[in-house]
UniProtKB/TrEMBL annotation:
Name this protein carries in UniProt: non-specific serine/threonine protein kinase
Record field: compositional bias (Pro residues): 329-347
Residues covered by the Protein kinase domain: 8-277
Keyword Transferase: yes
EC numbers, comma separated: 2.7.11.1
Alphabetized SMART domains for the sequence: S_TKc
Record's keyword annotation contains Kinase: yes
Species name: Actinomycetospora cinnamomea
């Protein structure tokens, strides 16, 4: 049974909410099927609700973004305000999530991108939506053969306000909107005209689309207000298995308590969500984010019974499920076998280097020769009486200063010989000195 409302024939009630009822209707003047929204009869004459209804009409009329349902006509019939809009067949995001659960990440990102387009268009016109939530996101089947499956509309600009108008409150003094998606500053400061409150709400919608539930639990206004002001939402990847972790950072920034820490525009949030999706699908780093992928520690395993020969083909590593990148966890660096240093060839000296080495060795050789000759002269001059203590003492001192432990036995032999014949020992000391000189020069020139 149809109802007549001015030139419109109302055939089916499509929905009813706090700010109006929407009918499928036919505009008999233009023979066009439309969606007709009219203010409920009980709200007629209530200035606050009438002003809100008019704001929706004026806001939608100012926007030409394809993701805002266009307004055909606006006015008043029989004392009731109405909106004549394009009829769009679809379901709102809240109903889709309630019946089917979380969206696939690619679908969720596509929805957010289209809502962000409508929000940026509104913000550029100085309008703040103030009630972005899943039930105000309408999903319709896309007519395009390529691209996303949904064509998305952002609806209900009824509580939209201009940035220049400042805060808008109801007659009871409570900020209007839906508490589950309201930014913290709306509870404390009454801020309603900052576009970043829409960015915050869009972040809540993204979280719900990815996980199937709102970011903050709560059944009443006080508990939701406390959650928005004081708690951190659970990361989406901890709720939805296989979800790329890049979405955690996107949601966390969008839901920052400080408005200055959020994305400046809805489009920036959407671009970050797209980047997180691309990084999760391809396994690459997010754009603009420096990512370090540490190696995973491996457990040592026994060598195989038939080791693979060098150059033989190795079996490919097991691949993860398609479409998802394996998440990494920071860990200690991989421990491999301790490298064994290769022997280095001895350095070779140029002829000039040999001359420099020989020149540096000459003072040492001259000193050793002087010591040996001095001992020989001493033996000849002072120890002709064959005093054992004299010859032995001199030999011991020289053995300690010149030869060290390795040649001490040879010098001790000369000392014993000096007890029998000091002259022979003197000659032997002189010969030993000459031998030292030759050894030092040979080492310097040969190195």
């Amino acid at each position: 049974m149809t109802e007549r409302f001015g030139p419109y024939e109302l055939s089916e009630l499509l929905g009813r909410g706090g700010m109006g009822e929407v009918w499928r209707a036919v505009d008999t003047r233009k023979a066009r099927t439309v969606a007709l929204k009219r203010l409920p009869a009980e709200m007629t004459g209530e200035r606050e609700f009438e002003d809100r209804f008019r704001r929706e009409a004026h806001a939608a009329a100012r926007l030409s973004d394809p993701h805002v349902i266009p307004i055909h006509d606006f006015g008043e019939i029989e004392g009731r305000l109405f909106l004549d809009m394009r009829l769009v067949q679809g379901k709102d995001l809240g109903a889709v999530v309630a019946s089917h659960g979380a969206l696939a990440p690619a679908r969720a990102v596509s929805v957010i991108e289209q809502v962000a387009s409508a929000l940026d268009a509104a913000h550029d016109e100085g309008l703040v939506h103030r009630d972005v939530k899943p039930s105000n996101v309408l999903l319709t089947p896309s007519k395009r053969t390529v691209g996303p499956a949904d064509f998305v509309y952002l609806i209900d600009f009824g509580i939209a306000t201009g940035a220049a108008l400042g805060t808008r409150l109801t007659q009871t003094g409570v900020a209007i909107g839906t508490a589950a998606y309201m930014a913290p500053e709306r509870f404390t400061d009454g801020v309603d005209a900052d576009p970043r409150i829409d960015v915050y709400a869009l972040g809540c919608v993204l979280h719900e689309a990815l996980t199937g539930r709102p970011p903050f639990p709560g059944r009443d206004f006080p508990s939701l207000m406390y959650a928005h002001l004081n708690t951190t939402p659970t990361a989406p990847s901890r709720i939805t298995d296989g979800l790329p972790r890049g979405f955690d950072d996107v949601v966390a920034r969008a839901l920052a308590k400080d408005p200055d820490a959020r994305y400046a525009r809805a489009g920036d949030l959407a671009a970050a969500a797209r980047s997180a999706l691309d990084a999760g699908v391809t396994g690459g780093p997010q754009r603009g984010v420096e990512t370090q992928v540490p190696s995973r520690p491996e457990r040592p395993s026994p060598p195989p019974a038939d080791p693979v020969r060098a150059g033989a083909p190795r079996p490919p590593a097991a691949a993860g499920p398609p479409g998802f990148a394996t998440p990494w966890h920071p860990g200690p660096p991989r421990l491999g076998p301790t490298p064994v240093p290769l022997p280095m060839p001895p350095p070779t000296r140029s002829p000039r280097g040999r001359l420099v080495a020989a020149a540096a060795a000459l003072p040492v050789a001259a000193l050793l020769l002087f010591v040996c000759l001095a001992v020989a002269v001493y033996l000849f001059a002072e120890c002709s009486t064959r005093t054992p203590s004299c010859v032995g003492g001199v030999g011991a001192v020289v053995a300690f200063l010149v030869a060290g432990g390795g040649t001490a036995s040879a010098i001790a032999g000369l000392t014993m010989a000096g007890r029998r014949s000091p002259r022979r020992a003197g000659l032997a000391w002189a010969a030993l000195g000459g031998a030292f000189v030759l050894m030092i020069l040979a080492a310097a020139l040969g190195g």
